[in-house]
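An instance noted here:
***
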Amino acid sequence: MPATRSPFFSLCLSCAISSRPPPPAPAYTPTHLTTHVLTPFFPRTPAGVRHPPMVLHIYHAAVGEKEFQFSTNIDKRTQETYEVDVNKAIEEVSCTILEQLTGEEALCCTCKTVPATRLIHHTMLFTEVFPPRVEDLPQPVCNSANCEAVAKSSYLMDMEDATAAQGMPSPNGCFHCHKGAPGAETTTVPLQRCSRCKVAKYCCATCQKADWKVHKQVCTPSGR
């Protein structure tokens, strides 16, 4: 049974910018979807514009019905300095967030049968609001490597749907090797959709085949 995907992703983006056997692997149909995007959450600074090194940000995280918020200083001069400071903030609060989860929210988001032992963090920077915000969508997972992989795949699917619904460029590249994603060594590459769900994207049939073990757990037929 495919893992349940959360509807919170589209809500987050809207607020921030205003036991059956697995099916056979779907055919790799070429739609030649090419990605030429920068991350919509970390825009490039225009030439000649200077920002103060450290800027106060609101860090907001949501897990199910629980929300966590605090302020933190982040060096936003470059993507690298931003990531360093956000990772520091995550290290400081990750255990606290996990400890405060209760009930179903404290279970692994993939298998939903055992308590989560860690969080997978997914952060997005929104600079067009004041004060600027870091939105984090942590996923509680257990020690299973498969549960972690499925959770990450589910996040990519949710983000793909949410950005499309908002008319925003996708931040995702190939779902397996990540070519075509902002920050990847190769940011311009033809990407082709999974013919079954019409959401997951791959740069080649080899990547699609390699990812199928995980993707089949979140892949559902497209209604389109």
Residues 8-17+25-39+51-215 form one domain. The chain has one domain: 8-17+25-39+51-215.
